[in-house]
Design goal:
alpha/beta, single chain, elongated, binds guanosine-5'-diphosphate, 434 Repressor (Amino-terminal Domain), Rossmann fold, disordered C terminus, binds magnesium ion
């Protein structure tokens, strides 16, 4: 759906979420990318600036709030996009009978198709519907609507010999009174012309519809602003049917049209078939464009990584104070495991700098770490707290309990003791100097 816009917004959000620190620079870069995505999708420039200014203003206050800032800023973007599309959505309510809906718009935007789609939408909800064929401009229009009506068992009233659509309304005035909802198709033109406006105004006067819906293909480009303005000036548009959102349409023009016409989107058309249709819900629409499901997963991941960074900070403190037991070791391993593959993690966290370790080795390490964790699960709290008490009989018991070999338990203890030895040596030394030795500017992480 609106693939291009969606893809570029998603990719800039992904980049943003994966950035480690949120400062003014990252934020500006992110907002610029959003701007670019919107402009490239033909959202009108002024509207883009309005949106991005709002985002910037609100997002700036989030800087310095740490990891939660990302979540807040994504939410701000979501809210700003929802807000230009009409906060709550404006569903059609059938308040009186017959409730008359007139569809207008230029050629090929999907008026006739949408007439049938809307008819089926309300038919499913138990209303008695009829269609009114008022496109007297195109010879085959009456035939097209009749065929669609037949498909869904909805009567179509029209007159292929009549040239004046207002007369057709007159002709069926009494007939349509018998229905709950009347949906009127109308004729379009290649471009907005005076004669079409006159024609549609005379239909409006005769029909007195409760709703006038502008049917607009999502593929409309930069011309959207002028067109929407002209329609708005001539007619009291109550809403927009946004069609063709299934294609490769950029979609931005349609967003602009809604904003200019000050008319909310009421329905979405997503294909040529009658069932490719849904009522518009701004929140769901924006969630889909932004891929909020994926975004949430990404945010979760980012949060876990941040948590991992916190844990390792605590751990550093413990290490430096010379206290380090198997319990700490286990916490460390657990937090790593939660964050997914070790090698993936290495790529994400700066300062984890072990760039030259081949992937195969990391994988081996990862398997080993998994086993270590299983072994430690079979240890008593006392053993974790004070590993020195683990001698051969305990080793046998732990191996049996964890389904591992005693040699593996011994290897774990050996590795742990090595780490502890290094840590003891490091105790009280200038950590930044040591870090430099390791080749990075940061504290060395766990040396396995
Ligand atoms: N892909 C796609 N095609 C649509 C949609 N709505 C209408 N169409 C197609 O667009 C063309 C023009 O539709 P039509 O209803 O005749 O437009 P009208 O001239 O405004 O009455 C037809 O080929 C329709 O099948 C939509 O939501 N998605
Ligand atoms: Mg038509």
């Amino acid at each position: 759906m609106l693939e291009k816009l969606s893809e570029s917004l998603k990719s800039s959000m992904k980049g943003f979420i994966q950035s480690i620190f949120i400062d003014e620079k990252t934020l500006n870069k992110f907002v610029n990318e959003i701007q670019k995505a919107l402009i490239q999708s033909d959202v009108e420039i002024e509207l883009v600036f309005e949106i991005s200014e709002n985002i910037k203003k609100r997002a700036k206050e989030e800087i310095g709030k740490g990891e939660v800032a990302k979540e807040h800023i994504i939410k701000i973007i979501y809210e700003e996009l929802v807000s230009i599309l009409g906060e709550k959505g404006h569903k059609i309510k059938i308040t009186e009978k017959p409730y008359k809906i007139l569809l207008i718009g230029l050629f090929g935007n999907g008026k006739t198709t949408s007439a049938a789609k809307i008819a089926k939408f309300f038919q499913k909800r138990g209303y008695k519907i009829c269609l009114l064929a008022l496109d007297t401009y195109r010879p085959a229009a009456y035939e097209q609507l009749t065929q669609l009506g037949n498909q869904i068992n909805i009567p179509v009233f029209g007159n292929p010999d009549e040239k004046n659509p207002a007369n057709i309304v007159k002709q069926y005035k009494n007939e349509i009174e018998k229905y709950d909802i009347v949906i009127a198709d109308s004729s379009g033109r290649d471009a907005l012309k005076e004669d079409m406006i006159e024609e549609i105004t005379s239909v409006e006067n005769e029909l007195k519809p409760q709703e006038i819906l502008l049917v607009q293909g999502a593929d409309i480009g930069q011309g959207a602003k002028e067109q929407a303005k002209a329609f708005k000036e001539a007619l009291n548009i109550t809403g927009v049917v946004l069609t063709k959102i299934d294609g490769t349409a950029k979609g931005g023009g349609a967003i602009t049209a809604c904003s200019i016409a000050q008319a909310p989107i009421k329905f979405l058309g997503s294909g040529e078939k009658i069932d490719d249709f849904e009522e518009f819900e701004p929140k769901r629409f924006v969630s889909r464009i932004l891929g909020m499901g994926d975004i949430e997963t990404l945010l979760e991941k980012a949060k876990e990584i941040a948590k991992g960074q916190e844990t390792s900070k605590d751990m550093e403190k413990r290490l430096m104070s010379g206290k380090f037991n198997l319990h700490d070791f286990k916490i460390q391993l657990t937090s790593m495991k939660k964050m997914g593959s070790l090698s993936k993690l290495m790529n994400l966290i700066p300062g984890m700098g072990m760039p030259n370790i081949p992937k195969e080795m990391l994988d081996v390490q990862e398997d080993k770490l998994k086993k270590f964790k299983i072994i430690m699960d079979s240890m008593t709290p006392e053993e974790l707290e004070n590993p020195d008490i683990i001698k051969s009989s305990r080793i046998e018991r732990i191996a049996l309990g964890s389904g591992t070999e005693s040699s593996e338990v011994r290897e774990l203890l050996k590795q742990f003791n090595q780490i502890r030895k290094v840590m003891k040596k490091l105790k009280g030394k200038d950590m930044t100097k040591i870090a430099k030795k390791f080749g990075g500017g940061k504290m060395p992480k766990m040396p396995f």
